Amino acid sequence: xxxxxxxxxxxxxxxxxxxxxxxxxxxxxxxxxxxxxxxxxxxxxxxxxxxxxxxxxxxxxxxxxxxxxxxxxxxxxxxxxxxxxxxxxxxxxxxxxxxxxxxxxxxxxxxxxxxx
Length: 116
Prior knowledge:
This protein is mainly α. It is built from six helices and no strands.
């Protein structure tokens, strides 16, 4: 998306008409006008640092709770754990795959790395 914004800026500076930019880049009129507005307000089109949704459910407390439960019972159901912790069913597998040392993720039912 960043590259497309920069292409829009380059074409706007070259004083290309909006319909030509739309057809050349395959973008909507709204996108072009939004980029033009950002360029006028901020002088650049890059996103502000820290923009976007912040992670809300995944906290260190939840990660440690999941790690402890898996350590105690490695064959525990992720769906059951999600129900007990009152979080989404997708939250638990996401935490296990991304936060619990993904480089050492050996495969199903092998949680020996949690003992370290």
